Fold:
Amino acid sequence: MGYRVIKNLDELTTLAAAEGGVEVAISIAGGAVVSSKRVHYLPPREGKTTGRFWVWSEIDDTEQTLWPKQLWTLSTIGEAMDRGALFVRE
Structure:
């Protein structure tokens, strides 16, 4: 069993929208450290066009609910995606 890179927001959204969400890994310091997160996509609420992401970080047992743009500003997920360092287990 290996890992594959999550390349963009559309791919993350599809994976996170599945039953139970998706567990992702962020490679830090060239793979010396890995940060695991559970991500669920929450569909748009009535009157909204964009859904949000619920993110639970295993390393410090914290959770966040974020709009897609906030994945870049309030978490490390967006930057990890940009760097090719966001992975899902196959």
About this structure: The chain has a mean pLDDT of 94. The chain has three helices and six strands.
